[in-house]
Amino acid sequence: MSQVGPGLRATAYVETEKLNNPKDRRPVEPGAAPPVVEDSGISRWVPALAIVVLWVVAWVLTKGTHTLDLPSLSRTDLHDRLTEIQNGLLESRSTNPFMQFTNAIADVFRSTVDWFQRLLSKPAFPRPVPQIGWLGVTAIATYVGLVVAGWRIALLVVASFLSFGVLGYWDPSMDTLIVVLISVLLAIIIGMPLAVWIGTSARANAVVTVFLDLMQTMPTFVYLLPIVLFFGIGTSAAVVATLIYSLPPIIRIAGFGIREVPTTTIEATDSSGQTYWQRLFKVQLPMARKTIIVGLNQTTLAALSMATLASFVDGPGLGKPVLQGLRVNDVGTAFVPGVLIVVMAVMLDRTTTAASERSERIARGGGHANPLQRRIVVLGGAVVALVAVYLSRTYVSLAEFPTYGIGRSISTAVSDFVSWITTNFGGVTGGLKDGVTDWLLNPVQSVLAESPWYVSFLGIAALALVFGGMRALAVCVVCLLGIRYLDLWHDAMITLNMTLVATVLVMALALVFGVWMARDRRVDLGIRPLLDAGQTIPPFVYLIPVLALFGPSRFTAIVAGIVYAAPAAIKLVADGVKGVSPTTIEAGRSTGQTTWQEITKVQLPMAKGSLVLATNQGLLYVLSMTVIGGLVGAGALGFDVVYGFSRSEAWGKGAAAGLTIVLLGVMLDRITRAAADVRRDDGPGTRRAFNVRLPIGPPGT
Amino acid sequence: MTAALSVDSLWKIFGPRSDKIIGTPDAELSRADLKAKTGNVVGVKDVSFDVAPGEVFVVMGLSGSGKSTLVRLLTRLIEPTSGSVQLGGVDITSASEGQLRDVRRKQVSMVFQHFGLLPHRQVIDNVAYGLEVRGVPKKERRAKASEIVDLVGLDGYEKSYPDQLSGGMQQRVGLARALAGDPEMLLFDEPFSALDPLIRRDMQNEVIRLHRELGKTMVFITHDLAEALKLGDRIMILRDGAIVQIGTPDEVVARPADDYVKDFVSEVPKAHVLTLKWVMREPRPGEAMDGPTLPVTTVVRQAARAAIASDAPIRVMDGDTMVGVVDEEDIMRVVVAEEEA
Ligand SMILES: Nc1ncnc2c1ncn2[C@@H]1O[C@H](COP(=O)(O)OP(=O)(O)OP(=O)(O)O)[C@@H](O)[C@H]1O
Ligand SMILES: [Mg+2]
Question: Which of A373, A426, A557, B81 is most buried, taking the most CB atoms under 10 A from its CB?
Fold first, then answer.
């Protein structure tokens, strides 16, 4: 991947320095070549439109033939061969060294989780209750919140933990936290050395980034199938999936923080004669601390979202009741655990963010006015927590959370509310659903999926060439050939269609709200916290309200995808438009342009890099959601995967669907990236943004 | 006396296969041509010079002429492509990592244009950093650091954090950090170009004061000729990575080696820089030889008053021997030439 060379940054620096300090203007060595001006040529939309027109003509002439439609419950030979491979691997479990290795790891994870569960959430034989009861756990968590982040966060932690118990989901909540905790600890242990490596070596960065990109292009869901194969279902699969999914953010973001430590500082301290380790521990890590904690925050949230999704492979925790509810289309049941997942996300997010802010304050000397008071709080809190642990071990009522009926009443109320909505507003939501389905979803789908496969193949490849150039074309052809080989072409086109339609809608939202936010500070202040909150919620949870409104259908998956992807895209567009230099805008205004001209002729073109990046992110987010949407009637590839989980003879088809999803993701990612690179006049902005691409979206700032 | 620093045909070429270029005809190409032909950029091209102990040696050149590269090569913050650097008796170019660390800890310190301070440490701990990496115990290094903080005029700011200080104060911290290890040599890479002119003058005077008080050898990089003339015992001018001229300030102004240097020095007020050495002449026959005497190192401007006051030409003395004379007209020629320029 292309890097922004230090040269570019240095040039920018010299520029600003000159502006700020005209006296310091220095002559430049004569003979330096002027920058090359590249002709961006005609707009790419003209040939793109031509291709679409040709495609539609071909569709009209040939529609319905060679579509490779495969009925949803049938399989091909390839799928059965994959299933056989799986069976073979499972049979060789005791002889194949790799399987033995993964099984051993799985055992370690299982027993670790089990140990924690007996500590926190399930009876520790011979005790009828866990080692530490709810009071002790809540006290310890609160104490941690108090020490790392202050008393406000401590209050938030108490409230969250009490809500887990009061709403009747204490044990699943603890299970989710256990999986998150173990995965995050492992992610730190594995991720930090890698972060240091990519932060200090450009070559390592290039290599590792390729892998991270691939990992982050893959929709969450897709990890699960191979993991189940090698680690079995249940807690071990949940931990492995969560670990893998939560690794990239810490590696990427912490590595970025380390790399961004100014060269001058490194040189200055190197010239004092420091060793490698002194440089690392006294300079690089402390200076990157804030970014590292941002990485930790993102890793924690990623872990939570995967830990809930792992209920698909029978992982323990809050995801399970949500999944049960969604499976039978029972919003009431899914609602309360869904809310608790959100509560947990907010708690984890706020705690890590506050911890980062606090550590930054302390590092800057704004720490504790009164060290003695701090010591009393730390020691006193520890004593209180220990007493609470002791009490919770002694009294059963403090060990087992008392049962309240609130959770159940809320479920019932929600169910009633949903049926009330359906009866009263069914017309409105149904109309919306039918409108989008009839006017957008179906027409595009029929062109994509009802054309002969080779027509769609050529059409997609031609568009890739137009938007992304030769490199994108090459990747695209490889991906399409792979998809064709996997025998799920028709389903792939349907999923692709849902993804494209949802992304178009996401971009429409992103343009409207992004531009509005960029032009009006008050709007920004009002909306941004909502978007930040939206980004902390695990995707799984989005399905619940959407399902309540629209019932199971393709449209539901699309709406969930839009809701999931929109915050990131809106923020990217807003930041991109806001990044347009005020001087340029003033210069434009001085020519007397209208507001509309200002937006369309200055702000949007100059923010093109951000728009492309927002599209890229939108596509990947939406893709991962449309797949999860297989659960709520979206059909196509998502359904194939879900079906593969549930029926052992369909494992091969599920795996093929998973691979197809990966190929789709890689294809969409590469085309949009290449599109960002084709236009040199975008400047380094896009590519730079891609380099620091964050998995869940930029950290809330 | 042996040189404090001795650099011998030092090269630095950036880019792929840079080691394959030296010694081939490609090495003779201009920087632009080499870049076009091989993609390599010459940073420093066949540079040799010596610096005497206690000397202030200034390196000058326009942006991109290779000054920063050169100064980083001296302590191998950048690996040289070829050539050698001797520093305080150690061959830097072949030193092991441990030896190199030792040299950096005890013999040379560096001051940087953008300070390079650690934002998460108080001033005192920034200053003590060099001692800390050597393993000096906390109490001792803080005591030493606080002495140095006083020396650079920052007493009272020990507990501040870098971002609470102005640019000039931050650079004083940078200076203090360099001084704390009591090195024999200081390297400055454009230390004052990020500061505004008044502060810059203060800091220049500070360096002159410290040099007088501590007598350290200094290599000072700048792109500002006035600064070079003010501080330097000798000045080296670089262009495209290669040496154009090495000489004392008055030599450089009086006898620029080529048009490049001439252009550089054209705006210098010559009467402020040139000494009598460059304007004196042989006495003409019959000229009165009873005028006042002045040492040959006197700057022209300072000699002007005496020359106007006296009817007889001034006798220019090198120690006890007369080496030439100057009269009012000789001096006016320098001053007027300048005004016409
Ligand atoms: N790491 C590098 N890779 C490639 N080229 C480099 C590198 N560092 C410096 N150069 C090139 O070497 C040349 C000399 O750079 P250097 O930084 O030494 O100049 P300088 O005289 O210090 O300029 P300035 O006054 O702007 O600081 C420049 O042409 C620069 O582009
Ligand atoms: Mg420089």
Answer: A557
The whole-angstrom separation of Cα A263 and Cα A13 is 14
Strands B56-60, B41-51: pairing is: unpaired
Bridge partners, residue B322, by sequence = B317
What value does the mean pLDDT take over residues A505-518? 90
Return the bridge partners of A430, or none. none
What ipTM was predicted for this assembly? 0.83
DSSP H stretches of helix in A312-441: 319-327, 331-363, 371-394, 396-399, 406-436
Nearest CA to ligand 1 atom 22: B68
Determine contact: A33 vs chain B, CB below 8 A: yes
Whole-number percent of chain A with pLDDT over 90: 11
Contact between chains at B177 and A282 (C-beta distance less than 8 A): no
- In chain B, what are the domains? 5-107+183-268 (3.40.50.300), 271-340 (3.10.580.10)
What single-letter DSSP state applies at residue A680? G
Which pLDDT score, from 0 to 100, does residue A410 have? Answer: 84
Domains in chain A, CATH or no CATH each: 45-91+424-693 (1.10.3720.10), 170-330 (1.10.3720.10)
Of the candidates B77, B118, B223, which has its C-beta nearest A265's C-beta?
Answer: B118
Residue A26: which pLDDT band, with cuts at 50, 70 and 90?
Answer: very low
CA gap B53, A56 in Å, rounded: 83
pTM, to two decimals: 0.81
Q: Do the Cβ atoms of A309 and A628 come closer than 8 Å?
A: yes
Between the CA of residue B300 and those of A39, A692, B279, B314, B331, what are the distances in Å?
58, 60, 8, 12, 7
Bond before A126 cis per omega within 30 degrees: yes
CB of B114 closer than 6 angstroms to any ligand 1 atom: no
**The predicted structure's pLDDT at residue A674:** 80
State how far the Cα of A268 lies from the Cα of B118, in Å rounded to an integer: 10
What's A569's DSSP letter?
A: H
Residues B160-170 pLDDT 10s: 888 889 888 99
Interchain CB contact of A31 with B (< 8 Å): yes
Indicate whether residue B191 lines ligand 1 (CB < 6 A). Answer: no
pLDDT < 50 stretches in chain B: none
Put simply, the answer to whether A363 touches B101 (Cβ < 8 Å) is no
CB distance B222 to ligand 1 below 6 Å: no
What whole-number distance in Å separates Cα of residue B249 and Cα of residue A493?
77
How many residue contacts between A and B have a Cβ separation below 8 Å? 104
Q: Using DSSP, state whether B13 is helix, strand or coil.
A: strand
Q: How far is A371 from chain B (nearest CA, A)?
A: 16
Provide φ and ψ at A64, rounded to 5°: 90, -10
CA atoms within 13 A on the CB side of B132: 18
CA–CA distance, B329 with B310 (Å, rounded to integer): 12
B63 lines ligand 1 (CB under 6 A): yes
Angstroms from A268 CA to nearest CA on chain B? 6
> What pLDDT is stored for residue B55 in this prediction?
93
Contacts of A62 (CB under 8 A, 6+ apart): A451, A452, A455
Closest CA to A199 of A300, A288, A267, A296: A288
